[in-house]
Amino acid sequence: MVAGLLGRKGAARIALMPAEVLVALNEGRVPTVNLNEFLALDLGRLIRCVARDIGLPPDADRITDTIAMLGAFRPVKRHEHVARALYDLTSVRMDRDAIAHRLATHPSDVARGWATQWIMFSDMPLQGKLHSVRRFATDPHFGVREMAWMAVRDEVRAGLDEALALLEPWAHDGDENIRRFASELTRPRGVWCAPIEALKAQPWRALPLLEPLKFDPSRYVRNSVANWLNDASKSQPQWVDEVCRRWGREAPGPECDHIVRRACRTMRA
Fold first, then answer.
1. How far is 45 from 143, CA to CA, in rounded Å?
2. Which of 16, 36, 159, 167 could form a cystine bridge with 182, CB 3.0-4.6 A?
């Protein structure tokens, strides 16, 4: 039954979702395929099913208390509280690493997203967190890849120079998901997260990270770079204009043209 659901197209509206799809999603047996499925999840049911799957007691007080308070928070914050509950339950477990592995490899993309947030809760230095988050940055599901960069965003804001230096090799990586991660993680304004004020004021500090991507063959990467520059154009339009003009001279071609066109959309509106 699960195999037959994996290739589905997501319903255009929550009301049109087949009952068997919703059951499979809430039991963590299949990943979501669109935003409607994500929004339709019964988090209370999902957290209990995932807890059972990874070897934690689904009826633990910590889980019950978390479920009871989820309605008071916005969707993204709800998932952080769920991830924290699971993380805290492992604090006294000798098999914590095994539980973490089961969560990180769970069939549910939402569960794997919770695993990325465990990295956020840890006290590892930034270099260690980047090493740990790499597997999620290349996850086959787009939602997990978004959760991956969000999991280390605060550390990047707090230690920008170190982060930019550590991420430079990622901009040269052979995997487009890794290159895109480096760009998306450092966007000055970002999505669903606090801005990086230092890059709003001085976006040129990240130029060594962006330069290798100016003619990237991947549209996924190019869109992120264009969005990065569009973010910067809202506070430093002259600098973005100069960069786009220079890139157009140095890397003429459809790849760079695509970035420049999207990067300048706010300035030309």
1. 20
2. 167
- Compute the distance between CA of residue 57 and CA of residue 71 in angstroms, rounded to an integer: 22
The tokens describing 89, both together, are 């339950």
Sketch out the chain's domains with CATH numbers.
154-269 (1.25.40.290)
The model's pLDDT over 138-164, given as tens digits with 9 standing for 90+, comes to 999 999 999 999 999 999 999 999 999
Residue 5 · residue 32 · CB < 8 Å: no
Whole-Å CA distances, 258 to 5, 154, 229, 265: 36, 30, 12, 11
| CA–CA dist 5, 31 (Å, integer) | 10
Question: pLDDT by residue (tens digit) across 29-70?
Answer: 999 999 999 999 999 999 999 999 999 999 999 999 999 999
State the CB neighbour count (10 A cutoff) for residue 73.
12
In terms of Cβ atoms closer than 10 Å to its own Cβ (0-12, 13-18, 19+), residue 195 is: middle
Q: CA–CA separation, 144 vs 105, rounded Å?
A: 11
The predicted model scores a pTM of 0.93
